[in-house]
Structure formats: structure tokens, C-alpha cells
Amino acid sequence: MGLDIPINLDLIDSSAEAIPTKTPYIDWAAGRIYGYVDSLNAMKQHVKKTLLTERFKFLIYDNQYGAEIEHLIMDNIDMEVLQLEAVRVVKDALLCDKRIIDVYDFDFSDLQDERVIRFSVDTIYGPIQGEVPL
User: Fold this and answer.
1) Is residue 5 over pLDDT 80?
2) For residue 102, what is the enclosing H or E element?
3) All domains in the chain, ordered by first residue
4) How far apart, in Å, are the Cα atoms of 81 and each of 29, 50, 74, 86, 103?
5) Which of 59, 57, 123, 118 has the alpha carbon at shortest distance from 90?
6) CA distances from 50 to 65, 67, 92, 93, 114 (A)
7) What's the pTM?
8) Angle CA(69)–CA(74)–CA(80) in degrees, nearest 5?
9) pLDDT (tens digit, 9 = 90+) per residue, 66-124?
10) Helix/strand/coil (H/E/C) assignment for every residue in 41-80
């Protein structure tokens, strides 16, 4: 015999959508995970982790997570093409998250032997700055 508990469906708010942000804190410099971050700090970490994770490479993530940055690392690619494609790849990786509103203000620079893209990200928690090496 099963347990039958009546539920008043009128009391359920179906318009509410929970978007969790609490996530383990990654100390990138020490290579350790400890504690938790939430809201804006979680979004900063999410942006970095998403762009450092190659899309389609790890079975633990669905096909929406990660970025296709590796294919941009070619010695003979024209700088204008590289910049256009990098903007597309970064936006594609980040804008699939409902918490991210916009990605803009892209800046490309060479630091020693590394190309770096810097950009601005508007999230539902506020604006943040992002950066990814090429």
C-alpha cells in the first residue's frame, strides 16, 4: 500500500527558476580546492573555468560547457581572423549560461610569448573582467 499525500498545485510557483551559484573555491595559484564562493565571485571562477576547459574533450561536461580555444592556436593564422574567431568562441562559451547577460569590450595583447584576450562580462550579479590566454 503506497503513501498518498495530496499536493495543492496552486501553491507551487512554477515561474520561479533557481540558478545556483554556490561552488567550491578554486585557488588557481596553489592548485587547490577549498571552501565555497557564491554570486559574483562564483561567476568570476565560472568564466575562467569555462574558458580553460576544452569543449567536447571531457565526458563529464555536456556539449554546452567549455570553449574551443585550442583550434585558435596556430602560428600561421591571420591576426584579424584570430581576433574575430576568438570573440565568437568566447561569446559562444559564455552566453549559453543564463546568468551571463553580455560579453563585450574585447582587448587583444601580447605578453612575452603569450597572446591574451581581456573582456568585460555583465552577469546578473554585476560586471566582471575576464581573461584567457591564446
Assistant:
1) no
2) strand 100-111
3) 18-133 (3.10.450.40)
4) 32, 22, 11, 8, 19
5) 118
6) 7, 7, 11, 7, 19
7) 0.77
8) 80
9) 888 877 776 677 888 888 988 999 999 999 999 999 999 999 988 777 888 999 999 99
10) HHHHHHHHHHHHCECCCCCCCCCCCCECCHHHCCCCCCHH
